[in-house]
Amino acid sequence: MRLLIALAFLLLPLPALAQDGPMQTLLQTHSADLAKPSRRTIQPVLDDLAASGLPQMTGFLESWADKGVVQRDADGLFFYGTREGDVYALRSVEDGSEAGEVGRRDATELKPNAGVRKLIATALVQFQLSDPDPDRRRAALDALSRNPTPDLLAPLRASIEGEENRAIRARKEALDRLISIRFGTDPAVRIAAIDWMASQVSLEARAALNAVLTTQTVVGATDADANIARALKVGTDLTEAQALELLADAGIVPEDVTRADRDAALIAAIEGGAVAGQPVTSLNTEAARWSAYEVLVAAGAAPARPPLDAVATLLDANPIVEVYDEPDPAITTAAAAALAEVENRVARAQAADLGLDALSLASIYFLAAIGLAITFGVMGVINMAHGEFIMIGAYTGYVVQQIVPDYTISLIIALPLAFVVAAAAGVALERLVIRHLAHRPLETLLATFGISVALQQIFKNIFGTQAVPLTSPDWLAGAWTLNDVVGISYIRIAIFILAAIFLATLVYILRRTRLGLEVRAVTQNPGMAASLGIDPDRVGMVTFALGSGIAGVAGVAIGLYAQVTSEMGAGYIVQSFMTVVVGGVGSVFGTLAGAGLIGGLQKGIEWLNPSNTLAAQTYMILFIILFIQVRPRGIVAQKGRFAQ
User: Sign (positive/negative) of CA torsion 512, 516, 517, 521?
Assistant: First the structure.
């Protein structure tokens, strides 16, 4: 007796206590149906499970659909089971805790078929739509948008009421309307949902409206209540060959006489070496054979060819029309009007997106060209090595990131350091080369071009020929998205802000400081400025350092989204010179206007011809050549002797 009591104490309470809970209790009430489910019997079980509201139910349904649930044969309890060789490692369906092991032959794995898994997925979405985790709710909405069904419309609407996340709530409301359009039974509700779609530009909205407006081509008579979209006309909507193909598919074709049929009739009519009175030897052309055949037709010895207007006659008798799959004309009319409005909104959104791209590109060109505009305007130097200062700044940022792994801190260090390093390189170039070639533009151009090639080779020897990464911080990752059409990356927004900061700083320096006064004086009349005690050489050196330093900062900004290579500066030198020349030499606002014009022009040409970027560059250069013919001094022309 004592031994029996001890065994009962050891064996019975532990599994019972371990599995005692509302989840297991509910599952045990449907034990037989869960073990052997079918599409006919499982729906009431799923409804009961969904009505329970138990938080553990989501995990159970997911595991059940993935064949991760087992039933222990000894007591019929359900567990999450992971097979490890010949045993299952068990976990509790109540809290996921470990519940021991069981032999593979002592447990039954629940294996729902495809039809049952589909019903489970439907029930699972109901739980996921109200899951406390926002990510799970978003995942449920993504799944629902990919495979919407009318069964999920009611749980979707039920989950909207308690949704506190504004973005998720808006997504649920949009999906409610999308599903209502496709599967709704009330025409008024469907039309209301269609009218709401007219204010959207999302891909889902356009797909839903296009789904309502799907058609099929019908040849011949249609039902009296058919919702006809349009009648197809030969020559406008389809070719005659396409019309004949449709007529043939419908079994309505003119009985034409082929050349084989003609030749067979002519051979059968040969008598005495002639056909219908014409010698066989004369029937050596197509025209002669058809002429002889027409004689046979007139004699009733061969079938007549169809008249020339046979196809037109058949089309008049059997019109080809497109019929909406949606039978309700009110719904298709509303959908067509909504789709037209959506397309107009998309066109406006595309124009806005193109404008943002152009503004972003203009910011990049402004940063790359503003330093060149200052040096070119003050010193009149055509510096072909200006692009290499951009490269120096980008590599400075790369080196800083190798030392400081935190991308935010390294970026904060790299921006001023790139300015200093590039400015020092600019001063060295001005002191060692450019000063000795003053007022000799051709020699200066050739010398700076040679220095450009030399710098590229030096950096190639140091850093290699492969591109090196200049990684942006996490807070610059991603993009600012307004809708499915309009969006811009955070890096480009940061470059725009950086360009605005430099614009404001340069305007302040040039308008409010003594250095700016001296720069403007030297730019407009260097001789008169020298007579007033201003050292043009010193001003030129400082200006060259400032322009080169700005190019270095531009290199860091450009390197965050473009490849950092020894040739990267060469890709911006042409655009920089075009920006300076078009905007006006030596003018900050002129450079800004030139960058805006060139950036907008390039994006516009690329939009018109997106498959050929080389053509965009060519057209842009041609436009600039014509522009310079009209305004040779640029948009903002310089004043004073320098302009002359």
Answer: negative
Number of domains in the chain: 4
HSE value, Cβ hemisphere, 13 Å, CA-based, for 8: 5
Q: Are residues 311 and 413 in the same domain?
A: no
Domain coverage including residue 536: 349-630
The CA angle 397-399-404, to the nearest 5 degrees, is 90
Separation between Cα atoms, residue 346 and residue 202, nearest integer Å: 9
SS3 percent helix, strand, coil of the chain, rounded to 5, is 65, 10, 25
Ordered DSSP codes for 535-594? -HHHHHHHHHHHHHHHHHHHHHHHHTTS-B-TTTTHHHHHHHHHHHHHH-TT-HHHHHHH
Q: At what angle do helices 536-559 and 386-403 cross, to 10 degrees?
A: 50
Report the C-alpha gap between 623 and 571 in whole angstroms.
Answer: 19
CA 263, chain centre distance (Å): 60
pTM: 0.66
pLDDT over 50 (residue 5): no
d(CA 328, CA 91): 54
DSSP secondary structure of 335-394: HHHHHHHHHHHHHHHHHHHHHHHHHHHHHHHHHHHHHHHHHHHHH----TTHHHHHHHHH
Tokens at 188, concatenated: 């008024």
Give the model's pLDDT for residue 455: 92
* Helix boundaries (H) for 380-471: 386-403, 407-432, 441-463
Provide the angle, in degrees to the nearest 10, between the axes of the packed helices 490-512 and 588-608.
Answer: 150
Helix 386-403 crosses helix 570-583 at what angle (to 10 degrees)? 130
Pairing of strands 320-324, 228-231: antiparallel
Count Cα neighbours of 354 within 13 Å in the Cβ-side half-sphere.
16
Closest Cα partner for 615 from 602, 629, 600, 599?
602
Q: Say if residue 609's pLDDT is above 90.
A: no
Question: Same structural domain for residues 188 and 229?
Answer: no
Do 80 and 210 belong together in one domain?
Answer: no
How would you class 490 by CB atoms within 10 Å of its CB: exposed for 0-12, middle for 13-18, buried for 19 or more?
middle
Q: Which of 69-78, 165-174, 307-316, 445-454 has the lowest mean pLDDT?
A: 307-316
Is residue 642 in a domain? Answer: no
168 shares its domain with 102: no
Residues in the chain: 644
Q: Return the number of other C-beta atoms located less than 10 Å from residue 630's C-beta.
A: 6
β-pairing verdict for 98-103 and 479-481: unpaired
Q: Do residues 197 and 205 lie in contact, with contact meaning Cβ atoms separated by under 8 Å?
A: yes
Who wins on pLDDT, 142 or 5?
142
d(CA 558, CA 367): 9
Residue 93 shares a structural domain with residue 207: no
